[in-house]
Amino acid sequence: MRGAKRRSNLDVQRLLRPDFIGARNDNIKTFTSFELVYLDSKSKATIVEIKMIRDALEASVIEGEDRLDAMVEQVYASDLMSDVLAFGRPNSILLTGLATQQAVISAHMAEFKGVVFIRGKKPKDGSEKFARDNHLVLLSTELDMYDACLRIDSAKRRMYPETKTSSVGQKTEEMLLSHEFSIQGNDFTNAGMVSTEVKSILKKIGLDPKLIRRVAISTYEGEMNVVMHAQRAKVNLWVTPKLIEVTIEDEGKGIPDVELAMQEGFTTATEEMRAMGFGSGMGLPNIKKNSDELEIKSEVGKGTILQMRFFI
Hints:
This protein has helices spanning 50-57, 81-87, 101-109, 127-133, 145-159, 171-174, 193-205, 209-229, 258-261, 271-275, 283-290; strands at 12-14, 33-37, 48-49, 60-63, 71-72, 74-78, 92-96, 114-117, 137-140, 177-184, 230-239, 243-252, 293-299, 303-311. It has a seven-stranded mixed beta sheet with strand order 1-2-6-7-8-9-4, sandwiched between helices. Strands 10-11-12-14-13 form a five-stranded antiparallel beta sheet, covered by helices on one side. It starts with 11 loop residues before the first strand and ends with a strand. The chain is built from eleven helices and 14 strands. Strand 7, helix 3 and strand 8 form a beta-alpha-beta unit. It folds into two domains: 12-159, 3-Layer(aba) Sandwich (Udp-n-acetylmuramoylalanyl-d-glutamate--2,6- Diaminopimelate Ligase, Chain: A, domain 1), CATH 3.40.1390; 176-311, Histidine kinase-like ATPase, C-terminal domain (Heat Shock Protein 90, 2-Layer Sandwich), CATH 3.30.565.10. It is elongated and about 70 Å long. The chain is α+β, with helices and mostly antiparallel strands.
């Protein structure tokens, strides 16, 4: 699982070659070109209405208000119209940041049912008339491509809770998303920022608030342990259709006696840390309480690895 590429991938299939799948930048959320293929347990397409996509994206209707009950089988997210024409399947809908008539024409040529323009974009070059004449739906959402895909996928899973990927395979093939963060030891100013971001990401997916709370609390406790006792750490968040896993791998003093450290009230925090409200000796016990599975591996003088798992 470690080292899995960052992607939104409940049922995501590559359109072209492996290096062509969209990689999410830490500052700019964007996908180059990929396909969300909705498959049920028998590998048949799951049909959804365009109005479900509109509602999931909180999108405005540019054209085709009377055609929102049209059914679509796939969602393609791409700014490369040549890929849409080469690999697009009929009865799909296109997510794109290319707000031009050519995007609408490409969707029509590929026999798509409509186009969703991301980041609040709206075409101004005759696209509405072309869409009206050719019975296409045009929508516009303020979301970027990454978040739009997550929203659609989450809405589909709520509609079809029995839906599963067509094969179990490796965890990387089931990956809904993965993300990596860094924590700097003794940085009390930014302490809690990683767990806050984790919570925000999970809320965007639309997971159960109680589950999100448990993940956020556990991640925060682990983050504070790094800030107080380690030099630095990497945090990896993985989400699959059935599991959330948070791994915190730090470089630090390590834990000499893990069993003792798991006891409520045991602490090695300094008086200064306690004065700031930390180090009550409830960190690891609280993580254990809130996670479904907890694994701790520690080596004195090297560091500690926390693996926290939460079942969806």
